[in-house]
Design brief:
Number of strands: 40
Strand content: 35-45%
Number of helices: 7
């Protein structure tokens, strides 16, 4: 919710409205560095929108509006979205403001209005004092879309609630952005129950997308795949501090149960400049997140998805194409989900110039694969360091790491902890040439003859530590700072009953009720501290090891 919602008593002159909005948007918060989409982020973490001198405001209320009104003041709103669109102009800095607490059973339809510039976007947002965001819930229709192939630039959608109304389960999207152009900001939105809650797909290329602090949940489909967020043909996208929960699955609707092809977040091959940080992505029948051409994935809580994170993809045409970037500080917690890739924590494939560090991957559940980290395809000039894989086994199957890559120069797996007490396996390596294992610590409660496998040869630990691809490997009981720390523990520390109670409160957040403790970054930090000590995380000694 923007502070501009507190404008019910504004003077009716255009100048008075502009001054009040500007004061509400930037007061106290200050300005920090800009995000993609060219909107600066305030010290409170929210995008700061400031109307220009010539900005026109159009107020819309389904409860008190009349399409015969001017729509120019809160006291004289129009009723329908269609009428509000008629009043707006292309290539303008117009703002359409919907009354909080009101509901429209109509779609925005095709949105072809561009903003004036990156600094002066066209805006869809809200006004009023009600707690609930304005709700868009069209019958068997989508929420908003661009005309296919149109160039649409500099649009901000902030503080809007899109609720699917699909009694016939038609394949409709919440936000469907299929255009060329640049500059899309989606912030403080709640999007629920569409086939695809958000699609951003350039026709050609779309540049600079920011999706922040929104709740994107419960997508499903009875025909075809379903995603919480699908991105394709985009250059530059920030996905930050969102809640992605239970997308791709609806067990209450016949034929809508999810499978491994339904994702919470699906960022396709060719999308570049990806920053995925501080998000919660949970309870997905497929991947928590797929980032197929790489990017930055940092400080996310990835909870109880069939596949935690996939970084890179088989379709990358190596060596001309590869994923590159950083995977850092994420917490991946397994679960008993469905799908062909069930039980994989982190899957990294066809990658180069990549750092994977300070991640915690724990408690696989009763998965099919039970592999904490997979390295697949090809890899070159990468470091996998200072990660912890803990209890990624069901006792019958399990691996901390399985590598099938053909590694190039500069490929190292170092300073990791494989805490796999009851697992039958720890590390399996095929194509071992050019791959080095340095100073990793393993712990299991037994010494099978196939704890480790190199190029098809089963090895006990003593054989592993003396192998030509290893240096300084150890087998020790590992005393982690607070092993067993979980999302349930974090929920209890905040006064919530359990994990679901925590997720329910995260899903209920909006700008007016935002709590940074309910973000992926905060949850990941708490859980990570149970497994990674400060010295270990910075590449020093292994926390506390051995007894």
């Amino acid at each position: 919710m923007l502070n501009m919602t507190r404008i019910t008593n504004f003077a009716t002159t255009s100048r008075a409205i502009k001054c009040s909005l500007a004061c509400g948007l930037v007061c106290a918060a200050g300005l920090a560095s800009p995000a993609l989409g060219a909107l600066p982020i305030g010290q409170d973490g929210w995008s700061q929108l400031v109307p220009a001198e010539d900005t026109k405001f159009f107020f819309v209320s389904s409860s008190t509006g009349n399409d015969a009104n001017s729509g120019r003041t809160p006291a004289d709103p129009v009723r329908s979205l269609a009428r509000a669109k008629q009043l707006m102009s292309d290539s303008s800095n117009d703002w359409m403001l919907l009354k909080r607490g009101d509901t429209w059973n109509e779609s925005f339809g095709s949105w072809n209005f561009s903003g004036k510039s990156a600094d002066e976007p066209v805006v869809i947002s809200s006004y009023g004092d009600a707690e609930q965001r304005p709700t868009i819930s069209p019958l068997n229709d989508l929420g908003i879309q661009t005309g296919f192939g149109r160039e649409v630039n500099h649009v901000a959608i902030i503080g809007i609630r899109f609720i699917a109304n699909r009694p016939e389960h038609l394949s409709k999207s919440g936000i469907r952005w299929l255009s060329s152009g640049e500059g899309l900001v989606i912030e403080d939105c709640y999007i629920e129950g569409f086939k695809d809650n958000i699609i951003v797909q350039g026709t050609g290329v779309f540049e600079d997308v920011s999706i922040r602090r929104s709740v994107i949940v419960d997508s499903y489909s009875t025909a075809g795949h379903s995603q919480g967020l699908f991105v394709k043909n985009v250059e530059g996208i920030v996905v930050e501090e969102n809640i992605f929960d239970a997308n791709g699955d609806n067990p209450d609707v016949p034929a809508a149960e999810g499978d491994g092809f339904n994702q919470n977040v699906y960022i396709q091959v060719g999308v570049t400049g990806v920053e995925f940080s501080g998000n919660i992505t949970s309870n997905g029948p497929g991947a928590g997140v797929q980032i197929r051409s790489g990017g930055i994935a940092r400080d996310n809580l990835i909870y109880q998805n069939s596949l935690g994170m996939r970084f890179g993809y088989t379709e990358l045409d190596w060596p001309a194409q590869y994923a590159t970037g950083t995977i850092e500080g994420n917490v991946i917690i397994g679960g008993d989900m469905i799908g062909a890739n069930q039980g994989i924590g982190l899957w990294v494939e066809r990658f180069k110039d990549t750092v994977v560090q300070n991640n915690v991957i724990l408690n696989s559940g009763d998965g099919i694969n039970n592999i904490g980290i997979i390295l697949a395809g090809y890899g070159e000039a990468f470091i996998l360091q200072s990660n912890v894989v803990h209890n990624w086994t069901n006792g019958t199957s399990g691996h901390s790491l399985k590598s099938t890559i053909r590694a190039g120069d500069g490929s190292a797996v170092m300073n990791n902890i494989w805490s796999m007490a009851s697992s039958p396996h720890v590390v399996t390596v095929n194509h071992s040439e050019n791959l080095q294992f340095l100073s990793n610590t393993s712990f299991v409660e037994h010494d099978r003859n196939d704890l480790f496998v190199v190029d098809g040869s089963p090895l006990r630990f003593n054989q592993w530590k003396d192998h030509s691809i290893t240096v300084g490997e150890e087998m020790d009981p590992v005393t982690l700072p607070d092993a067993g720390r979980s999302l349930a523990d974090y929920a209890h520390s905040l006064g919530y009953e359990d994990e679901q109670d925590f997720l329910d409160h995260a899903r209920a957040m909006s700008r007016s009720s935002w709590d940074s403790a309910l973000t992926g970054a905060a949850a990941a930090r708490f859980i990570r501290q149970g497994y990674i000590s400060d010295s270990f995380a910075t590449g020093g000694a292994f926390g506390n090891t051995g007894e």
